[in-house]
C-alpha cells in the first residue's frame, strides 16, 4: 500500500481501542525491560488481555515492535519541531541528538530501524526523520558548530553505535554518557565542549 493511501480499516470500537492502547503500553514497557525478544504472551499478561486480543491488533511481533518504534519516533519528531524556534542552530541540533538518545534508550530497536532498516516503519515517517536530521545538521554546520565533513547518514550511524555501546556497558553505566562523548566529537576541530552538560546544551 502506498504511504499516502487512506487507511482501509474501520475505526475501532471504544473497548477495542482501549485494549490496543494497553497492549502498546505493555509492549513498550517490556521492550524497554527485556529488549525486542520479549514474548507476545508476556505482553498480553502485562496488558491484562488475552493472547488473541494481541494477535487481532498485531498479527506478528514485528508489527508490534514497528508500531512502538513509530510512536516513539513521532514523539521525537514532534518535540524536534519546536526546537528551532527556541534555540540557535547549534543548540537545536545537539538538543535533537539528546532527544534521540533518550528515545533510543527507551527502545533499543529505534536506531536499528533507521540504520540497518531491520524493522518496517512507514516510509513517510522515515523520510520525515531523515529530513529533520539533515536540515538540523546543515543549519548547525552553517553556523560552524558541527564538522563540515559529516552527513546525516554519518550522524545516524554514530548515534546508533554510541547508544548501543552505552547499553552494553550494563545497568551500572550512565545512560547517554558515550553518546555525549560522541556528540563532542561532532564539533569542529578546536572546538571546546562544555563538560558537565548534556549533549543538548552546547
**Helices and strands, in N-to-C order?**
HHHHHHHHHH
The description of the largest β-sheet is:
none
Structural class: mainly alpha
Instruction: Please tally the helical runs, counting DSSP H or I stretches of 4 or more residues.
Output: 10
What is the average per-residue confidence, as pLDDT, rounded to a whole number?
A: 81
Give the CATH class of the largest domain.
Mainly Alpha
CATH architecture grouping of the largest domain: Orthogonal Bundle
Report Rg. Answer: 19 Å
Described by the principal axes of the CA atoms, the overall outline is elongated
What is the topological layout?
Elements: H1 14-34, H2 40-47, H3 51-57, H4 61-80, H5 83-86, H6 89-106, H7 109-115, H8 123-142, H9 152-168, H10 177-185
Helix pairs in contact: 1-2, 1-4, 4-6, 4-8, 6-8, 6-9, 7-9, 9-10
Amino acid at each position: 500500500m502506498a504511504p499516502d493511501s487512506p487507511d482501509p480499516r474501520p475505526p475501532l470500537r471504544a473497548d477495542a481501542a482501549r485494549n490496543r492502547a494497553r497492549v502498546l503500553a505493555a509492549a513498550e514497557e517490556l521492550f524497554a525491560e527485556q529488549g525486542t525478544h520479549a514474548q507476545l504472551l508476556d505482553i498480553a499478561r502485562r496488558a491484562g488481555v488475552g493472547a488473541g486480543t494481541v494477535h487481532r491488533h498485531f498479527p506478528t511481533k514485528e508489527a508490534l515492535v514497528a508500531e512502538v518504534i513509530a510512536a516513539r519516533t513521532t514523539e521525537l519528531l514532534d518535540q524536534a519541531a519546536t526546537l528551532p524556534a527556541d534555540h540557535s542552530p547549534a543548540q537545536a541540533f545537539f538538543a535533537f541528538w539528546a532527544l534521540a538518545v533518550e528515545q533510543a534508550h527507551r527502545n533499543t530497536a529505534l536506531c536499528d530501524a533507521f540504520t540497518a532498516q531491520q524493522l518496517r516503519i512507514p516510509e513517510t515517517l522515515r523520510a520525515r526523520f531523515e529530513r529533520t536530521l539533515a536540515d538540523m545538521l546543515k543549519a548547525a554546520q552553517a553556523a560552524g558548530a558541527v564538522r563540515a565533513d559529516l552527513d546525516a547518514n554519518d550522524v545516524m550511524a554514530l548515534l546508533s553505535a554510541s547508544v548501543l555501546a552505552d547499553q552494553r556497558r550494563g545497568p551500572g553505566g550512565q545512560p547517554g554518557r558515550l553518546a555525549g562523548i560522541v556528540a563532542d566529537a561532532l564539533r569542529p576541530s578546536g572546538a571546546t565542549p562544555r563538560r558537565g552538560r548534556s549533549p543538548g546544551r552546547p
